[in-house]
Design a protein that fits this description.
The chain has a seven-stranded parallel β-sheet, sandwiched between helices. It starts with 17 loop residues before the first helix and ends with a helix. The chain has 16 helices and seven strands. The radius of gyration is 23 Å and the shape is globular. With 354 residues, it is α/β, with parallel strands linked by helices. Strand 6, helix 12 and strand 7 form a beta-alpha-beta unit. It binds guanosine-5'-diphosphate. Guanosine-5'-diphosphate (GDP) binds next to helix 5.
């Protein structure tokens, strides 16, 4: 590390009052990409937090630095187990993640919990972020919890979450949970960035009621019927049989993995350890048959593709000629005076003009 970054290093034995360190961080000049990397690899949570803020930033001047940092982090990424967790509000996601996270910490692991919350873009109220969640996990040194980035399209939010995941991996978190609400489009985005997809369900509520689409069940590697405790235990067992039957109707997964249905209680902790053992079994199976590697490679190729498409779209929309012409043509199309295809052609022609 060059002398330039030394101001960030707290000398051993010197207690820094917390107010002072916060001020220092605020006053600190921008770090360079190698300085960020050094802090992240050292496991410095303040630097990790700042790096995440950097990749979440929409300021053009931050973009290059963020990308330089991610490129530097790349050799230190990819070594975690990435698990997506979804379920409708109230299914018990935060309780479950806390229970599973504490189980993993007990096994000596370090856990990062990230979220993609589509609701936070639509309204200021966020389904995943508005309550005190995962208090025990949040206070553990072995866990790192980051709420959903709130600005931008789902594509933009998904990209920031992916990049945050890479930063967390470089910081030594070997398990990453990505939580989302099982009601919208975000499950596909999450599925595209994880190795294992877990659906949390409740017994006694029909699929319609739970708003879970067939497609989400189809992409799940494990369905866990939560709240299998007290009077609810028998109903949960019954639901398990029903979901097992339903899963049989789906086509075999390309991963060679047969999705499982289990019951658990996030509140009492029963079934939680077994769920993690299932995740590990899935890792072993898919690593042995090559699917793990294929899936990760496909994901990075898709991310590149998506980023190109998003970039082209941003470029298109930012063109002043397009900004001027677009509303006019939209009116024409909406009024039925011009076909959508013709309007699109006109705009693309305008865009291609030097
Ligand atoms: P989320 O909206 O999916 O994150 O759900 P929460 O984790 O906030 O849980 C919703 C409610 O269900 C809370 O009151 C939890 O205490 C309760 N809950 C979560 N898991 C269980 C469980 O396994 N058993 C029971 N009985 N209640 C649970």
């Amino acid at each position: 590390m060059s002398g330039d970054g030394d101001f960030l290093i707290v000398q051993p034995g010197v207690e820094q009052p917390s107010s002072l360190s916060v001020k220092n961080i605020k006053r600190a000049r921008r770090l360079s990409a190698p300085e960020y990397l050094e802090g992240i690899l050292r496991g410095d949570r303040a630097v990790l937090g700042r790096a995440i803020t950097l990749v979440e930033s929409s300021r053009p001047q931050d973009h290059q630095l963020a990308q330089d940092l991610l490129q530097l982090c790349l050799p230190h990424t990819g070594r975690s187990i990435r698990v997506g967790i979804t379920g409708v509000p109230g299914a018990g996601k935060s309780t479950f993640i806390e229970a599973l996270g504490m189980e993993l910490i007990g096994r000596g692991e370090r856990v990062a919990v990230l979220a993609i919350d589509p609701s936070s873009q639509l309204s200021r109220g966020s389904i995943l972020g508005d309550k005190t969640r995962m208090e025990r996990l949040a206070s553990s040194d072995s866990a790192f919890i980051r709420p959903s980035p709130s600005a931008g399209s789902l594509g933009g939010v998904a990209r920031r979450t992916r990049e945050t995941m890479l930063l967390c991996e470089a910081a030594g978190f070997r398990t990453v949970f990505i939580e989302t609400v099982g009601v919208g489009q975000s499950e596909t985005a999450v599925n595209d960035m994880v190795d294992f997809f877990l659906l949390l369900m409740l017994a006694g509520a029909g699929d319609e009621l739970q708003g879970i689409k067939r497609g989400i069940m189809e992409m799940s590697d494990l369905i866990a019927i939560n709240k299998a405790d007290g009077e609810n235990t028998a109903r949960a067992r019954l639901a398990r049989c029903e979901y097992e039957t339903a899963l049989h109707l789906f086509a075999a997964q390309p991963s060679g993995w047969t999705p499982k249905v289990v019951t658990c209680s996030a509140l009492s902790g029963s079934g939680i350890a077994e769920i993690w053992d299932t995740v590990l079994e899935h890792q072993r199976t898919t690593r042995a048959n090559g699917y793990f590697e294929i899936r990760r490679r496909t994901q990075v190729r898709n991310w590149m593709q998506e980023t190109i498409e998003q970039g082209l779209l941003d470029h298109f929309r930012a063109d002043p000629r397009i900004a001027k012409k677009l509303p006019e043509l939209e009116t024409e199309v909406a009024a039925g005076r011009l076909t959508s295809a013709r309007a699109a052609e006109i705009l693309l022609d305008v865009f291609r003009r030097p």
